[in-house]
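Researcher: Here's the sequence for the chain we discussed earlier.
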Amino acid sequence: MKRRDFIKHAGLLSVASHIPISRASIHDIQALSLEGNEIVLKKTDILEFMSSFQGSVITKEHYDYDMARLVWNGVWDKRPALIVFCESSSDIQKAINFSREQNLITAVRAGGHSISGKSTCDGGIIIDLSRMRKTSVDLQRKIVTVEPGCTLYDMDSKTLPHGYVVPAGVVSHTGVAGLTLGGGIGSLMRMYGLTIDNLISVDIITADGVMRKASKDENPDLFWGIRGGGGNFGIVTSFEYNLRPLPNGKVIVGVNLYDLKYAKEIWDFYYDYSEDLSSEIMLNAGMWNVTRGEGYFFLGTLFLGDENKAEKALKTIRNFGKPLSDDVSKKDFIEHQQVADKRNAHYRNYYVKGRHIDEYDPKLTENLMDGWMGVEGRFDTMRVVRFGGAIAEVAEHETAWVGRNAKWDIEVGGHWSDREKNEEYTQWGRDYWKNLTPYCAERIYINELMDEDQDFVATSYGQNYGRLVEIKNKYDPKNLFRLNGNIKPSI
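Model: Thanks. This is the structure I predict for it:
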């Protein structure tokens, strides 16, 4: 779907979902409980909920239901019993209370970018936050406050004109909420840290329906948990971040493209050179398959430092090998943030998975290349990003996010349009990753979760998992918020 077509559809959805459903069309609805059992949502209970709900409630009878239920990753073709579009914190509170009282399987959708489809469900309720997109910039205090439905573009477009930024992700239509709660990696993280490292406080409604403030001074246990623990503990209604300077909203960025026949040589260079990389430089490496038989290796660079020193700092990278193209220049950061949008368009079918890399083993490259060649439309993109820098300056125990000392993060995936290929290509992806995982850490950036099981989630959180379980026991003992990289309560 083209960008302008997506915007058109999104606009139509916004209008359609604002049209209130006729109360006369409400009836008892078959649904699924938290445990997966069939239950009935009674008409009287639904009507009572709707009577005080400011937003819109969509059932399968709503003419735009099939559009409203879509999420970014088209692999997840779910059919919820209810979709509720919240207009306010009060709406969120009412939706949580309704879900808890009905013991209803509950998905929370902000940007809807969950790779693993956790922002939707079959037979349950989607609590949609996409209408709550207010952003407030306080230049005197150098902070920005955003509502949970904001995208990265919503936030960047308000802060960058003032010369400030919040380090976040790399696709502009990604939701701020999910990205932040999972940790928030992006192109500025080596200089300014993860998104959670710039988070000051949140307002959050926990599973009991109570609004709480979480910061280092208020409910510090909850604040610790939401910084990397995902949506396990409630729904955040407001995020407050420190602003970081980005003069004129510009950065020096570029990409070198190479013929894929040089891939193994470039991989060796990348891992070796990036070991001691200055924190002012972000260096990504990866491969694209453009069409069958045509692909490129890329080295993507971003420099955030003294402009007069950029040429010298990037000299080794730009002079390496025989690039087919070399495009490094000063660009508007907000435009740079949209470069990957097209490759991450809504409603296509995706299989994407990631892992941390603590130490480089050349066998990783061997297995990566063996599986990559002749991919024929399955996996079409992958990248490795250098961690370190400001990320590693925060101790492993200071936030729930794990992997502070990881050196790299690898993500491999692809997309396709033919839904008939879902099973075949998904299985191909699983098999491919079996050959890569022995050379990666048993740990994942939780926002790259695809189809990992509960044991892997626990293993991935490592020494922080026990503390996360304690917080889960306190704020969500019945595991209402389980559609995520789940921290399973022990009580």
